[in-house]
Amino acid sequence: MFARLNQLARHLSKPLPNYAHTSAARVGLVSGALVDRSKMAAERSKRMIHTAGCIIIGDEVLGGKTVDTNSAFLAKYCFSLGINLKRIEVIGDDEGEIVEATRRMSNNYDFVVTSGGIGPTHDDITYQSIASAFNLPLKLHEPAFEKMKRLSKPHPSQPNFKWDEPSPALEAKKRMIILPHDEKLQDEDQVVFVDEGLWVPISVVNGNIHILPGVPRLFERLLDGLKPRLLPRLTDPEGKGVYRVLFSTPLAESEVAPYLTELAAKAEPKGVKVGSYPRWEKSRNTVTLVGRDKDFMDSLVPEIEKGVKGRRVTTEGEDDDEGSDKDA
Fold it and tell me: Per the database record, which ranges form the MoaB/Mog domain (predicted)?
């Protein structure tokens, strides 16, 4: 019995995960010293960007009602900028899930994007959940409200709507600009307008969480507008991104696997990844090189073409032989 009690005591004495036992708004432990969370957020917002994470929020995505295209757009966006997108998660409109995911990703990655859950209805809880995650108050952002009044038009179903008269519809619209607010940070560091034609702000929380709408047209437009702010913080400030080389091979993956193992051993020490992608019911598979060392990658082209009995292509499938199956 005493052994079990000692075992229980040791278990209870173990530290909880950081998001559970540390006040996310006020303090963090760095090298044994307590540091104000707002200062950490300000510092985080200026760091170089190497890695990214994405959180897609919405019951409609998990329920199959809506197809998520935003994560695919973000993946291409990050690739074009040379940012290593490390994780994409899809979660529901659940405060606990949003709190846990945003705390963890903010801690693990340099650039975090959320998509969805910032509309006018009761189930749009992203702002309030992320505010809760970092113990921040919510505040009506007056400049965003002024932009909303200037740039948005009432829906045809609301012919009597007025901006200067209280109404349930007005309160619903305001939900979209009641944002997490850290009084110790400059407003321009936590509310970003990137498109003069849009009233929709990008709310930035904890220095690296960027809260975007789930509507693909807005998501894409806002991300494109954010690019100039990100470029100075990239390891490749010119935004040339990562280099990708594609090869088309008639060989089955099982046939080409031994050669690719040898190729990876040569390429990966140079920071170049070797990939192999089967193409179901197509005559040719795809082999890729992805990295930044363009000269080294180009030098491998003749060897790889010989090794995979194929050739370099510009786009996947450009040399398909119609009607010919293959063994993956």
Answer: 53-233
